[in-house]
Write a structure and sequence with these properties.
This protein is mainly α and 225 residues long. It contains 8 helices and 4 strands; from the N terminus they run βαααααββαααβ.
Length: 225
């Protein structure tokens, strides 16, 4: 009787794990915008637009509020890649779990920072977001982003268009995955806007909880036929 071959995959790209990461991503962006001086943690395109507007208006201090988080985002991508290179072969813990733990610690610290430290808080949040977007780039094997929507929106519509052309149900499932991620991000942003009113600067701790759940899920090794 033939044996079925099985392989083990890491849970870091499973939809259930990505769901918590994506909700956290939306919450982080809402938090930085509504609580920390209308600066985006994830949407660096928005920061560039706002920064450029302030520069052309001669408002250099306001421009700096958007420029420094942009640099922090770049540094976060660099550090995440270095962690990947240095720790990808360790067996005790997956390198992506190290990224999540680092995110949790940074965002937990952000919750203690007063409004007078908004610039530092935004830098840490942008750094954490960048580490996440660099580290988690697939859901069920599909390329995606957990902290922003434009790429997912483009991919979702592109795949949906392909489905109407060739009627492959797998394409429909793939498109649904992209739109599902966008919905989760929107839910996270909504939670972020409400919690910002109720919890203020401590609202970011909800992200720590969501990220910790993701960390626990990544401890699971799921068999795939």
């Amino acid at each position: 009787m033939p044996h079925k071959l099985t392989s083990k995959r890491q849970m870091s790209d499973a939809m259930v794990t990505i769901a918590f990461l994506t909700i956290s991503g939306g919450l982080q962006d809402a938090y930085s915008y509504f609580v920390r001086g209308k600066v985006f943690a994830n949407a660096q395109t928005g920061n560039i637009v706002l920064m450029s507007g302030h520069i052309f208006a001669g408002e250099w201090a306001s421009a700096l509020r958007h420029f420094i988080p942009l640099l922090s985002f770049m540094l976060g991508v660099f550090v995440a890649e270095q962690i990947h290179i240095r720790f990808k072969h360790i067996s005790a813990v997956h390198w992506r779990q190290l990224i999540v733990i680092a995110e949790i610690l940074m965002l937990f610290c952000v919750g203690f920072m007063p409004q007078s430290a908004d610039l530092a808080a935004n830098c840490l949040t942008s750094f954490a977001c960048a580490m996440q977007v660099q580290t988690f780039r697939k859901v069920n094997g599909y390329a995606f982003a957990s902290t922003m929507c434009i790429g997912n929106l483009r991919s979702g519509v592109e795949v949906l268009s392909a489905y109407f052309r060739i009627r492959d149900k797998q394409l429909l499932e793939k498109s649904a995955a992209y739109f599902g991620v966008i919905l989760l991000f929107a839910i996270g942003a909504g939670i972020g806007s409400v919690s910002a009113i109720i919890l203020g600067q401590k609202a970011i701790w909800l992200c720590c909880l969501l990220l910790f759940i993701s960390f626990l899920l990544m401890c699971i090794r799921e068999e795939k036929l």
